[in-house]
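Worked example

This section walks through a single chain of length 268. The input is the sequence exactly as stored; nothing has been trimmed or padded.
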Amino acid sequence: MAPESARLKARVERLVDGAGVTAPAVEVLESVDSTNRYLLETRPETGDLPRACVAQAQTAGRGRRGRVWHSPPGASLALSLAWPIMQGRVPPAYPVGVGVGVIRALEALGLEGVRLKWPNDLMVDAAKLGGILVEQRAASGGQPGWLVVGIGLNRQGAGALELGRAVTDLATQLPGPVPDLLELAARVIAEQCRLHPLLMGEGLVPLERELVRLDCLRGRPIEILDDGVRGQAHGIDPASGCLVVQFDDGAIRHLHSGEVSVRSCEHV
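Given that input, the structure is written out below as tokens.
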């Protein structure tokens, strides 16, 4: 464990002071294969407290549908949070709410124009700035389950990633200097700490107006990558987290994030 853990925890506690939420136990690692895997598979010494893990380098990060998330040393924020879940169901709209929280943190740092591409991409115009991966381990044997939220953000050097798609980073987009890794992580963790109880209790409904503002697919023509069918996105349903799409044949469907991938036809 890197010595920065105590400094990061102090920053998070300062940011959530007075918010009535619990700051997580924090670990900063010099290197790990996957922050999500680390939190899912390591036995916590903190009991049922929430946990946060930040890696200075991530060697085998995972994205949606098994995609690889590249995190060279110092170039990216690789962060995961784990929330204990004893019983009940995680609202299906939860991952979308995580994206809203990340954008709130970035806007507080002075970054404008970040939008959410359903269900889990953070975009500036047509370029990807970051992504979100939510996983869950069920409770068993009287032990809590865990809801693990992985967040990746490009800090600098995104152009060298050679991912075959448009990417960007904070160094390119921020009007001033890029925050150091601990400051960036603290802002994102604190915002998730504030949002987590709301998302678990009420889902996206209280965030509906903000979601309309941040949804980059709303009103745009899209293509379903799985079968090439096209339609127009009509926004994200706050009750379910589904993408509402009217297809070219007039049919309207609510798409679940686990069943399809979409892209904006304007960016093809």
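What to look for: Residues 181-202 form the longest helix (22 residues).
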